[in-house]
């Protein structure tokens, strides 16, 4: 019965966001306990703390662009639009057009990229984030960055990450490709 109810939730998500939930259904059908552990990431990724929607989605969108080439990115874009982040802001976050973003959104956009690149220049921006939103805001950004990376990694691991697509924003279509170059395969001969 619980498997049936959880699958109904997944089908609702599929319909709401036009998102392929097969990888989650695969986990659910394999083992309910394992699926419930996966749901812990849902709780973590939904955390917003005291952050407004636009900075929160700046962290999520910039993160997903590092690891995904379409479907997960589109899901987060759709969620940002649903949270009333304007299409223009979403586009500027994707394009990293900092001059078109409010100062707080530009700050999180830049900070996220520096964190993902393990760049020590993130330290200066971290202080600005702490001044704006305190530790709670910084933790919310940390949750957004770390939990967002789970989904594409899991999809690719399970064999569901091969679909690439253009990102759709109202009246616009953008190409999508991961920002980070994959590490070269090690040659162990």
Automatic annotation (TrEMBL):
Origin superkingdom: Bacteria
Database matches in InterPro entries: AhpD-like
Protein name as it appears in the record: Carboxymuconolactone decarboxylase-like domain-containing protein
Organism: Oceanospirillum sediminis
């Amino acid at each position: 019965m619980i498997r049936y109810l959880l699958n109904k939730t997944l089908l609702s998500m599929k319909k709401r966001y036009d998102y392929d939930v097969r990888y989650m259904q695969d986990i659910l059908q394999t083992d309910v306990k394992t699926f419930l552990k996966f749901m812990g990431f849902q709780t973590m990724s939904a955390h917003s703390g005291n952050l407004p929607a636009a900075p929160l989605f700046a962290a999520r969108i910039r993160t997903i662009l590092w690891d995904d080439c379409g479907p997960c990115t589109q899901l987060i874009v759709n969620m940002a639009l649903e949270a009333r982040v304007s299409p223009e802001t979403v586009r500027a976050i994707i394009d990293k057009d900092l001059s078109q973003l409010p100062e707080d959104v530009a700050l999180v956009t830049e900070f996220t990229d520096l964190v993902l690149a393990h760049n020590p220049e993130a330290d200066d921006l971290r202080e600005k984030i702490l001044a704006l939103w305190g530790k709670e805001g910084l933790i919310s950004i940390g949750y957004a960055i770390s939990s967002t990376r789970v989904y594409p990694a899991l999809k690719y691991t399970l064999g569901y990450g091969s679909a690439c697509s253009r990102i759709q924003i109202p009246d616009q279509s953008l190409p999508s490709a991961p920002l980070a170059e994959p590490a070269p395969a090690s040659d162990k001969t």
